[in-house]
Amino acid sequence: MSRPCPRLRFTLNLLILGLAGLALACGSPRTPPPAPASETTQLGDLFAQADSLYAQRESLERAREAVAIMRRARSLDFGNYEAAWKFAKFNYYLGEHGQDEKPRAEAFREGIAAGEAAVRIEPNKPEGHFWLGANLGGRARLQGPLYALASVPDIRKEMEAVLRLEEGFQGGSAYLALGQIDLELPEMLGGNRERAVELLEKGLRFGENNVMLRLSLAKAYLNVKRPKDAREQLDAIFKLKPSPDYLPEYKQAEAAARDLIEKRF
Asked: Could you tell me if residue 60 is inside a domain?
């Protein structure tokens, strides 16, 4: 059996990142009836517990506990938008950082289903679209380059929806996802290094403190032969004061920036 062409071996990171069309084709979602007051209080408690555990996500066990609590929250009210998109978000983290392929695939599967549900419940809010796109990308990367290639249109669709709804969502993270696609997809298959730079620079307008965006922009600058600009972005990562909410991501970006400097400068 022949191996895939090496040029197809790209990754869709964050982010970074073809089921969304089905979700949007189901027509206008019905407005779910309001949950009873006691149930609403319970949901609020579960959200608080899950958020507290997710803040400790550098411990994968804490991330798993957060997912378990959000699974319980969803079972209480499948029409709750916050429960749906947070379940998608937390599953994405498990899929990205897990060690074994089977549980990672299951995390992305649950994340996609929850993201689709969030899009159906609130199609005009960005969180569902973003975490649906992220989980689609995570699953694509896990299943291999050919599958990833087929998933690109759906990932683009979700991230472009985020830009229409809230351009600066999460510090320009939708621009980050789109830029990474153009940066890592072979040009013969639709990638575009110059466009990647443009997208990431647009994202920087909203994400001056988004270290993952700066890291990707540095890589894009290197691809278009702008090493001075690349080094400026890498140096900026070390000067930023990390937000406590994104400390794991800052540590990851900082380590990657140091590695890139050692290899290219």
From this structure: yes
